[in-house]
Amino acid sequence: MKLQAVLFDLDGVITDTAKYHFIAWKQMAEGIGITIDSEFNESLKGIDRMQSLERILIHGHQEQRYSQAEKEQLAQAKNDEYVALLASLAPEDAYPGIKELLQELKDNGVPAVIASASKNAPLILDALQLTDAFQAIADPQGIPGKPAPDIFLRGAGLVGADPSCCIGIEDAQAGIEAIKAAGMYAVGVGEQRILGPSGADWVLPSTSGLTLRQLLAAAHME
Ligand code: BG6
Ligand code: MG
């Protein structure tokens, strides 16, 4: 089977923005008397902004406390803090191996696509100077979020790829589930303990040194 596209999650795969999401959510949550830890944060990774807020409110037994308008304010406050944390993001903040892998994909004519829940994706790719490394960015607007397969299917559609001939790369449990639901080969970046149970086909500790050849061999593709 010939590989037709590689779909990348953004936060926690291309760069370490997952930590900034955690810092910003933790600060917002503390402001309303809710404590979140890194274990709970795993359940937020890959989940869109409003759904993340809902999960935090349920975690703190405050799901009935706020009106829709107040929830939007809380989410806005989190995003303001998050965007402020992004201000220092620079090209050298791409994770090790990412630029090399993207270059190798380009050299071999394999489209690279962003499949992220983040509305800040274009801003982050600009700061990393990686916008041109991707053939397409799937817009998360108007489709069900991860673990639903939609964002990966939309991404594959943008480059005319058959999902079963695609590889998805993710750092989140919900993201791995989404890739599998889309019928793609799922590469997890992180811990086997966290990503294995979600159905990752292959888990690596980091993207450092990751090559197209390794991806093809793992996925039994050409
Ligand atoms: C995902 C992150 O990539 O994007 C989540 O893993 C985040 O933590 C989601 O909530 C939405 O991001 P944003 O930037 O639109 O709030
Ligand atoms: Mg992620």
From TrEMBL:
<keyword id="KW-0597">Phosphoprotein</keyword>
<dbReference type="InterPro" id="IPR023198">
    <property type="entry name" value="PGP-like_dom2"/>
</dbReference>
<keyword id="KW-0413">Isomerase</keyword>
<dbReference type="GO" id="GO:0008801">
    <property type="term" value="F:beta-phosphoglucomutase activity"/>
</dbReference>
<dbReference type="InterPro" id="IPR036412">
    <property type="entry name" value="HAD-like_sf"/>
</dbReference>
<comment type="similarity">
    <text>Belongs to the HAD-like hydrolase superfamily. CbbY/CbbZ/Gph/YieH family.</text>
</comment>
<dbReference type="InterPro" id="IPR051600">
    <property type="entry name" value="Beta-PGM-like"/>
</dbReference>
<keyword id="KW-0479">Metal-binding</keyword>
<keyword id="KW-0460">Magnesium</keyword>
<keyword id="KW-0119">Carbohydrate metabolism</keyword>
<dbReference type="InterPro" id="IPR023214">
    <property type="entry name" value="HAD_sf"/>
</dbReference>
<protein>
    <recommendedName>
        <fullName>Beta-phosphoglucomutase</fullName>
        <ecNumber>5.4.2.6</ecNumber>
    </recommendedName>
</protein>
<dbReference type="InterPro" id="IPR010976">
    <property type="entry name" value="B-phosphoglucomutase_hydrolase"/>
</dbReference>
<dbReference type="InterPro" id="IPR006439">
    <property type="entry name" value="HAD-SF_hydro_IA"/>
</dbReference>
<dbReference type="Pfam" id="PF00702">
    <property type="entry name" value="Hydrolase"/>
</dbReference>
<dbReference type="InterPro" id="IPR010972">
    <property type="entry name" value="Beta-PGM"/>
</dbReference>
